[in-house]
Amino acid sequence: MKKLAFAIVVCAAWGSQSAFAQTALPSTRPNVISVQQNAVLSSKLIGLDVYDGANDKVGVITDLILEKSDLAGYILSVGGLLGTGDHYVAVTPGSIGYAYNETDKKWKATINVTKDDLRAAPQFFYEGKFKR
C-alpha cells in the first residue's frame, strides 16, 4: 500500500513538472541592459492621453501589444464615458508619437488622425485570451 501511495505521489509530481515544462522559457540567460535616457516605460504610456494635431484629446493608451518581445502596437480607447461605450482601436507603434516635457514634467502622446477617424476604424475587442 505504501508503494502504491508513493507511486501516485511520484506520478503526480512528474505530471505537474511536465505541465510546467510546457511554459515557454527563453532559450538564453537574460542580458542586463542600461536604460537609455530617451526611453519610456510602459507604466508611463498606459493611461496616457493621446492628442491630434489640433491638440484635441482623441483617446487614451490602454494597452501595449507585444509580439515576440517586440512592441507591435498600442490599444487606444476612443470615446466612452467612465468605461462604458469605449471603442478600442489597435494602431501600429509608428502611429503614436510621444515626448517628455521637462518644464511640465509630463509625457504627451500624439497621433495624426482625428477622433472621428479612430471611431471609424475597425474595433478591437477584449475577448478570448485578451479578455480583461
Could you describe the 3D structure shown?
By secondary structure, this protein is an alpha+beta fold. It has a domain at 42-130: SH3 type barrels (Roll). It is 23% helix and 30% strand. It has helices spanning 2-21, 42-45, 115-120; strands at residues 49-51, 57-67, 70-78, 87-91, 96-101, 106-111. Strand 1 (49-51) and strand 2 form a beta hairpin. The model is unreliable at 1-21 (pLDDT under 50).
Brief account:
This protein has 132 residues and is of the alpha+beta class. The protein has helices at 2-21, 42-45, 115-120, and strands at 49-51, 57-67, 70-78, 87-91, 96-101, 106-111.
Main sheet attributes: strand count, strand direction, barrel closure: 6 strands, mixed
Low-confidence stretches at least 5 residues in length (pLDDT < 50)? 1-21
Shape: flat
What is the average per-residue confidence, as pLDDT, rounded to a whole number?
A: 83
CATH superfamily descriptor of the domain at 42-130: PRC-barrel domain
The total beta strand count reads 6
Reading the helices and strands in chain order gives: HHEEEEEEH
- In order across it, which strands form the biggest sheet? 4-3-2-1-6-5
N→C terminal distance: 47 Å
